[in-house]
Amino acid sequence: MATWAQTLSGSDGGLLQQTSSTYVLVATGILAYVVYSKQETWKLRHIENAGSSSPLYFVDAVRYMINGKNFVTNAVQKMVKIPTLDGWVVLLRGEDVIDEWRKLPDDILGMDQAQHNTLQTRYTMSERIVSNPYHVPIVQSQWRRAIPRLIPDVKEEVEVAFETYVPTPASSEDGWTEIDPQKLFPKVICRASNRVIVGKPLCRNEEFIENNVQYTFDIFTTAYTLRLFPRFIQPLIGALFRTKEKNIDRCLKHVRPLIQERKKRLESKQDEEDDEPGNFLSWIMEDAKDPQDANEREWAVRVLVLNFVAVHTTSTTVSQSILDLAVHPECHDILRTEAQEAVDRYGWTKEGLDNMVRIDSFIKESQRLRPVGFALVERVLMQDHTFVNGVTIPKGTTLAVDIDDRNQQYPDPDVFQPWKFYDLQQKTQKPASITAITPEFLSFGYGRHACPGRYFAAAEFKIVMAYLLLNYDVRLKGEERLPDMFVGPGRIPNPKERLLLRRRT
Length: 505
Ligand code: HEM
What we know:
- By secondary structure, this protein is an alpha+beta fold.
- It has a domain at 125-372 and 408-503: CATH 1.10.630.10.
- Helices cover 56% and strands 10% of the residues.
- It is built from 21 helices and 12 strands.
- The chain has helices at residues 4-9, 14-43, 57-67, 95-103, 111-119, 121-124, 127-131, 135-165, 181-197, 206-227, 234-238, 243-267, 270-273, 280-287, 296-326, 332-346, 350-354, 357-369, 403-407, 420-428, 454-471; strands at 80-84, 87-92, 109-110, 176-179, 375-381, 385-386, 392-393, 398-402, 472-476, 485-487, 490-492, 499-503.
- The strands form 4 sheets. Strands 1-2-8-5-3 form a 5-stranded mixed β-sheet.
- α8 (135-165) packs antiparallel against α14, α12 crosses α14 and α15 (296-326) crosses α18 (357-369).
- The radius of gyration is 25 Å and the shape is globular.
- Mean pLDDT is 89; it is low at 1-13.
- The chain binds protoporphyrin IX containing FE.
- The site of protoporphyrin IX containing FE has 22 residues, from α8, α15, β5 and α21.
């Protein structure tokens, strides 16, 4: 029997030789990476570091990762660079620089490259999502046009979700039920959004909902793990991850019957005869012009990706605004009266929501102070570029916009002023609602890629808040709001935060 040493060495050097070549490969990799990072740092040496610098790049990158916005100490209107797990990100600040950024074409500001770097789209989504994002014009057109028709459906979904997930306390003396907002709202929003993405009854299927909420976490976990490795090794490691395939399989289990049914309808041209309004799944099936997109797996990925872009962002914003509502009891009667009058007069319709102007202002102020991320809308520079402030950034650098810096351009920027946007609209007669994008309010992005889903998101926010006000009393479990949590550029409410809800009779 071969000994352990023999097995290791073998007749021609065997495993030992293999092991030493592995060491050489790893050592070369590390060396190449160190040289590469030094070179990158050197190229950006004229841009100040965002936080206090440690001599070891990775120490700062991890500090930023777990401490996010708190790491970025110098709140000046100057470009700074942030150390991330896979390289520097230059944070753009100042109205003139951001206005210039907005106007630069896609061949100078690469969006696909940035999305791939941040979300590792190749291993978490699909190549086609990036190379042919035909779902974006669908959100801009078919989805947006359908909003007036969808409002009663979304309200019904919110209502059913509250009845399902907010237990009525049988034994509690005072009738208050404790709620974890970060468990409740993702499910409420996931159901409501999927009423439009795949329709009823699948939008109420618990397993489907769980899978979609989980998918967002899978994307972040996979992407952050891969980003721990140098870019040139990522394809090797990425190939080992099954995140994408696993999630597509789970999604297909539920959407395949809908796809088959829809295909039959399309084949028999039934659509021309009935007035079935369709949903996101049917729209992507109809608009898949390229044969590479016209198959079950690609449609399932788009269903997942829509869940990714629509659910986490919206539910985090809803959680933040309802937590703010809980600590501003002085606003409850005003908002409740507004909701009641709008519903009495117009029902749950677009006109009804358009008349909830103070609710709109309240949510927007919450979103201004607590956006889902502070360094959003990443792009990779495809060529060297000198900005209007005279600073030249080299090709290949990742850029992000400092949303907080922009959202702070109001008088008393740190004070929560619930009627700020309502008053602004009255005074200027210019749109200041949630969906209005101005240089001072960039929570939905800016320019040609600004969020096309914001009209639907705003409708969801207002339906949830109005429904909650009309049916529940709300307060915070603790005395005051706990500090938000920052993970890299992201911001979420403190996981220990709890709401108390009491059914109104
Ligand atoms: C609070 C809720 C939301 C926030 C804060 C948000 C934020 C954003 C931001 C900042 C962008 C710009 C990304 C960039 O320029 O790199 C974006 C893009 C996008 N959003 Fe949203 N979003 C929200 C809800 C939604 C919803 C509900 C939908 C779908 C109905 C949606 C669909 C999209 C799509 C498809 C894009 C890509 C646009 C493009 O590539 O041109 N979003 N969103």
